[in-house]
Amino acid sequence: MVDFKQLRKEKRQTAPTDPIAIFQRLPKPPHINDLWDGQSKALAAWKERRTENDLVIKLNTGGGKTLIGLLIAQSLLNELGEPVLYLCPNNQLLEQTVEKAEEVDLPVVAYHGPELDADFLNAKRILLANYHALFNGLSRFGVLRSGREPVRPWWHYLR
Predict the structure, then answer these.
(1) Within-domain flag for 119
(2) Assuming Cys at both sites, which of 44, 119, 129, 151 could form a disulfide with 125, CB separation 3.0 to 4.6 Å?
(3) Distance CA 45, CA 10 (A)
(4) How far apart are CA 159 and CA 156, in angstroms?
(5) Element (H, E) at 127
(6) Can you give the pLDDT at residue 159?
């Protein structure tokens, strides 16, 4: 006799939380073969110290900080299953970050207001926003004592 209940069960693969493993699973464009040595070392150091507060990743200009930040944000999204916010100083860097994420097929959405994206709120995509989106008196993320419940994303700051 066949047990059809077994066929209906979803087999969930756990999403990787190691940012290097996430990178290895991504489809890559022809000009990206592997992480650079500095990127790999930075991600390994972050993974080792990920529970600490106020970590800073420092690389030279052109050292691949954007990709590292996106991989860390995806790692947090996979691990926590909660909204993750990636902040950029300005709209130009925001658009560059969107392009990099699309290049390696990471699930992101750019915030241009006024409402927060449902995929971000449901922890399906990383929200990319500029600083002003978060740090202002009318922030859609909520303002303490304003009567509106704040959205508490895991934000990732890397620039």
Answers:
(1) yes
(2) 119
(3) 35
(4) 10
(5) strand 126-130
(6) 39
Tokens of 102: 């699309």
Residue showing tokens 């449902």: 118
Using pLDDT thresholds of 50, 70 and 90, give the confidence band for residue 144. low
Pick the closest to residue 108 from 121, 93, 116, 119 (CA basis). Answer: 119
For the chain, helix (H) and strand (E) counts, in that order, are: 7, 4
Percentage of the chain beyond pLDDT 70 is: 82
**Is 94 within the bounds of a domain?**
yes
pTM listed for this prediction: 0.82
Rounded to whole angstroms, the Cα distance separating 112 from 74 reads 21
pLDDT of residue 129: 95
Token pair in block for residue 22: 């996430």
Within-domain flag for 149: yes
Q: Which residues form the domain of 145?
A: 17-27+35-48+56-157
Number of structural domains (the chain) is: 1
More reliable by pLDDT, 142 or 34: 34
Q: What is the CATH number of the domain that holds 125?
A: 3.40.50.300
Determine the angle formed by the axes of helices 65-80 and 91-103, rounding to 10 degrees: 70
DSSP string for residues in 47-62: HHHTTSSS------TT
- Quote the CA–CA distance of 106 and 100 in Å, as a whole number: 9
